[in-house]
UniProtKB/TrEMBL annotation:
<dbReference type="InterPro" id="IPR017642">
    <property type="entry name" value="DNA_S_mod_DndB"/>
</dbReference>
<protein>
    <submittedName>
        <fullName>DNA sulfur modification protein DndB</fullName>
    </submittedName>
</protein>
<dbReference type="Pfam" id="PF14072">
    <property type="entry name" value="DndB"/>
</dbReference>
<dbReference type="InterPro" id="IPR017601">
    <property type="entry name" value="DGQHR-contain_dom"/>
</dbReference>
Amino acid sequence: MRTSAKSNTFAYTFPAIRGLQAGREYYVSMCPLRLLPRLFQFDDEELQPELRAQRTLNKSRVPEIARYIVENKRDYTFSAITASVDGDVSFQPVGDDADTSFRVGTLTVPMEARFIINDGQHRRAAIEQALQTAPELGDETIAVVFFIDRGLHRCQQMFADLNRHAVKPSASLGILYDHRNAAAKVAKHLSLTSPVFKNLVETERSTLSARSRRLFTLSALHYATLDLLPEPILEDFPHASQRSQEYWETVCEQIPEWTYVREAKMTAGEVRKDFIHCHAIVLQALGRAGRCLYEQHPKEVRKRLQRLRKVDWSRSNAQVWEGRAMVGGSMSKSGLNVTLTTNEIKRVLGLTLTPDEQVAEDAWMASRAPAKKSTKR
C-alpha cells in the first residue's frame, strides 16, 4: 500500500504482468492470502440475480474447501482468481520493452476501487475460513487475474464466459488422480491387481457405453469400497486391500457372469444389458451389505456369501428389482434405491436391517401392497 501522488489517495500496488486479450488490457499478479478477505467482497446476496455479477455463495461448499487447505498445507493447489476492478487503475511498466502487449511492471489500484470476483468466490471464502485455523498461511500467495470493470453488463458476461466451457472431470478420473483419498487408493489397487477387476474397470469415465469392454467403473468401485470398509481399516492400506480382495473374490465366485466376461464367453455389454449386478448401485449395495456381514457374522462371511448364487440378478426379474435397483426399468442410483437394494441383499444373507433401512423397507412394502377397495354399507 502507498499514497498516490497524482490523486493524493492511498492505493494498493501489485507487481504485475500486463497482457492483451480481446483488444483489452488485463493484469496478472500474486496476492497474499491474508489480503483476499479485505480486497474481495461479495455482491449483496439480497439483490435479484439480474442485478448481481456473481452467483449466490453456496456456504455448504466452503468448509470442505477450507479443510482441504488446512489438511494439505504443504501440497494444496489453487487455480487463479479472476476479478474485475472498478476504479481508475494505472500500470507502470519496467524498462523499455518493445512488445507493448506484454510487460512486467506495477499495477496501482486506488483503495476506494471495488473488486468483484468473476471466478473463485468459493476459494476466497474458504481461504478466509482456513486462515482462522492456520494464520501462518497468510503470507502465501494466489494468482489473481485483474480485468478492468466495464460495468455490470460486462461483469455478468465475463462470469457467463468463464463458466461456459467449464467441464467437471468425471468421478472416475478424479478418483484415478487422487493420491490422498484412502478409498481411492484401495479402489485403484483393486482395479490393477484383483483377478475380479483387472482389465475390467473403466478409469476415465463414470458411465459405460453399450459397446464398452469394461464391466465396472472406477467410481463405482470407489463408492463400494467406502461402504465396505470401516474407517480404521480403510486407513490401513495393507489390511484394507486384503479384506477387499478376499471379499470381492468370494462375491465373484457367486456371480458367474463376471467370470464369463473375463473368459470371453460373454461381452461386458451383454452382461450390463441383461443383469444388474455389475452396475454402480448394486456394487455399492454389495459393499454396504459386506460391511454388515463382517460386523454381524465375521466367521461366516464365505458361507453366507454363497447364498448370492441363488439370486436372480436379471433385469427381467422386475418383481424383485423394480423399485429397488430400477425405476421404470432403468437403473437408479438414488440414495433410497441403494438402501432398498442393500435391504434385499441383506435379506438373502440373513442380516439385520438398521432402523433407517427398516423404515425404507416398510415404506416400499406399503407402496406395493394392493389398494383396498372401499365398500358401501
